[in-house]
Amino acid sequence: MPEPVPRGTYSTNPLPPHPHRRPLFVRLLIPMLFLGAAAAVVIGLQKFLQQDRNLANTKSGGANAGNSTVNVILPEDQTPPKTIKPVDETPSAPPPTPDLSPIINPNIEPAEGIAPVSPGVLGLAVLEKFLSAKSLQERLPMLETKESQETLASSSLAKPFPPRLNIETDVHVPNTIENYIDIFYNVEFEGQNGKPIPQSILVRMRGSQEPKIVADPFLDLYDGRLATYAANPTDKSGTFQAIVSADAFCWDENIPNKDTKLTLKLLSRENTREITRAYFSKHSKIAELLDSQRQSEWTYGQAKAATVLLQWNTEEDPGKPFLEALDIKALRWNP
């Protein structure tokens, strides 16, 4: 026991150290150890997760080896891994060739998995080739005609056509008895000063044969054979193929006995100005055809492809000759 200090005096010895007070470095060491342990835990966890991810990718790569994919593992501080598919350098197989036989011959079933091609598309392909040809030799295999090669050689078919402004599919007319399909196309050629020249062109598909251009009406209309015949009176009759439309009256004062006549307009295409007009009696074969209750193919005001027999009438009034329609030979076009 220390000796008691007399009252009024002070001891010069320092106070003994506090039993709970530690040096400064000891107090700092404890947090540092804690932080180091936490960092070690985080690093260990990251390595564990990295190893687990590598193992999963290895298993996935083995299971998907047949899929030919490559799994790329990026560092932790970058974007997540992506699956990259290698480029297949094997050339792809060409698309299947369309089976055209079911279109030309409806009795043939199309091949499985191949979509049929419409007659309009087939005909248009031939028409494009026909219009783009430069000579008669190119066009001959595409023509259906009764004209001689000498006649064709002197026609527009032996030279290039002017540029075309437009092509449209008009109507399909099947003939199940004779096993063919007629496809009419509306074509506009470029004329002088860019003015269009409208024209109807017929493509016919007979049985399983390739489509053909029916050339004779094209020569009557586009080559001007009908217009030439209608320009001057002659004693010869003529048969021409055109688009025809009948009116149930005659308003031309220059036509003899016009009150007994009806009008037939001959056009190169529907809804265009006629090439010429021909007239027929109210009691003629044409009138009977139009008035027949059993006739539904052609009526007044309806445009129709037809084969017409024409003749110049110079006897009824020699001073006023007019073009007379004697008969409708067929309500269709033929070579």
Describe it.
It is a single chain. Strands 3-7-6-5-4 form a five-stranded mixed beta sheet. Strands 10-9-8-11-12 form a five-stranded antiparallel beta sheet, sandwiched between helices. Among the domains are: 107 residues, Nuclear Transport Factor 2, Chain: A (Roll), CATH 3.10.450; 106 residues, OB fold (Dihydrolipoamide Acetyltransferase, E2P), CATH 2.40.50. It is α+β, with helices and mostly antiparallel strands. The relative contact order is 0.08.
In short:
This protein is an alpha+beta fold and 335 residues long. It has 8 helices and 12 strands. 26% of the residues lie in helices and 25% in strands.
What are the salient characteristics of this protein?
335 residues, alpha+beta, Nuclear Transport Factor 2, Chain: A, OB fold (Dihydrolipoamide Acetyltransferase, E2P), five-stranded mixed β-sheet, five-stranded antiparallel β-sheet, 8 helices, elongated
Secondary structure layout plus pairing:
Elements: H1 24-63, E1 70-71, E2 83-84, H2 101-104, H3 119-132, H4 136-139, E3 143-144, H5 149-153, E4 164-175, E5 180-190, E6 196-206, E7 212-214, H6 215-221, H7 225-231, E8 238-247, E9 261-267, E10 276-281, H8 285-291, E11 304-313, E12 322-330
Parallel strand pairs: 3-7
Antiparallel strand pairs: 1-2, 4-5, 5-6, 6-7, 8-9, 8-11, 9-10, 11-12
Order of helices and strands: HEEHHHEHEEEEHHEEEHEE
CATH architect. name of the domain at 101-106 and 115-215:
Roll
Supply Rg.
48 Å
Q: Report how far apart the termini are.
A: 148 Å
The CATH class name of the domain at 101-106 and 115-215 reads: Alpha Beta
| Major pleated sheet | 5 strands, mixed
Percent of sequence in beta strands:
25-35%
Question: What would you call the shape?
Answer: elongated
Oligomer: single chain
CATH topology of the domain at 101-106 and 115-215: Nuclear Transport Factor 2, Chain: A
